[in-house]
Hints:
Layout: E1 2-6, E2 8-14, E3 17-22, E4 35-38, E5 44-51, E6 58-66
Zinc ion binds at residues 24, 26-27, 29, 52, 54-55, 57.
Amino acid sequence: xxxxxxxxxxxxxxxxxxxxxxxxxxxxxxxxxxxxxxxxxxxxxxxxxxxxxxxxxxxxxxxxxxx
Length: 67
Ligand SMILES: [Zn+2]
């Protein structure tokens, strides 16, 4: 299985535990610290949305588990 991340970059995945960094899809800004969340198998999880400190874009964050 693999994880597709919207509004973030995948750092690591171990089963359903996903480590990622928030990323602004508009300007490409990436936070310099990791966040971890659980993504249930074969489903989509919304993570915490954020406002980009660089360009002010309101970025939605979600993760999708797929085969
Ligand atoms: Zn931005």
